[in-house]
């Protein structure tokens, strides 16, 4: 068994991470930092297509964090044109001042992400000695990804999302508690508050809800370091 330290930052999507906040992240001594879907989103864009012009600024902000934080940074997400010239929503993976890879969202929202193409990258990665699965937003409902996780015996999943407006705070907890038990996985979910939408970051394991933001914290920035025990996924 190995204990992995994971810092999750429920962070307002439209606000930069300040030098003081970066210092707190560094002090967490976490192996991983997880940022929400849609972070950073500093520029108002009319469409995902027009948002691609801010790609470098968003990546530079993550590299700025990586100057002080030696662990693996997952997230948040932004839009870019991939090597095939397709418009995709990507989760950048950064470590040691290097943009290592991208996870491309497999199930973009046709309503909220017009013109965005379903991603083709792998959903399973190995970084920092840990083998894990990634989900962004509507990927949670993608059966083929879950089938792959089961086949590959994935134990820990990082889920970057925004809160489901259709579920209440309590219903959200019940949903993720049931999902983690059903799939026998650890789900680390991180959201970011934005324009009045609630953020409900949490950690669900097969034994239940291990940590959650409080109901009064749905609109707050919350930095939390979790210790997660993994049995099968640690490679070092």
* Beta strands, count: 13
Count of folded domains: 1
Quaternary state, please? single chain
Order of helices and strands: EHEHHEEEEEEHEHEEEE
Radius of gyration, in angstroms, nearest whole number: 16 Å
Shape descriptor reads: globular
The H-level CATH homologous superfamily, spelled out, is Carbon-nitrogen hydrolase
- Please write the CATH class name: Alpha Beta
CA distance, first residue to last residue: 11 Å
- Which structural class do you get from the secondary structure elements? alpha/beta
* Fold-level CATH name: Nitrilase/N-carbamoyl-D-aminoacid amidohydrolase
CATH architecture descriptor: 4-Layer Sandwich
Number of helices: 5
Report the biggest beta sheet as strand number plus sense, adding barrel if it closes.
Answer: 7 strands, mixed
> Beta-sheet strand percentage?
25-35%
Protein name: Amidohydrolase
Keywords: Hydrolase
GO molecular function, one term: hydrolase activity
Organism: Leptospira harrisiae
Word description of this protein:
Helices cover 21% and strands 31% of the residues. It is an alpha/beta fold and 236 residues long. It has a single domain (2-230), classed as Carbon-nitrogen hydrolase (Nitrilase/N-carbamoyl-D-aminoacid amidohydrolase, 4-Layer Sandwich). Strands 1, 2, 3, 4, 5, 6 and 13 form a seven-stranded mixed β-sheet that branches. The N and C termini lie close together (11 Å). The mean pLDDT is 94. GO terms for molecular function: hydrolase activity. This is Amidohydrolase. InterPro entries: C-N_Hydrolase_sf.
Task: Please write out the topology.
Layout: E1 2-10, H1 19-27, E2 32-34, H2 48-51, H3 55-66, E3 72-74, E4 78-81, E5 87-95, E6 98-104, E7 124-127, E8 130-136, H4 143-151, E9 156-160, H5 169-183, E10 186-190, E11 202-205, E12 208-212, E13 222-230
Parallel strand pairs: 1-2, 2-3, 8-9, 9-10
Antiparallel strand pairs: 1-13, 3-5, 4-5, 5-6, 7-8, 10-11, 11-12
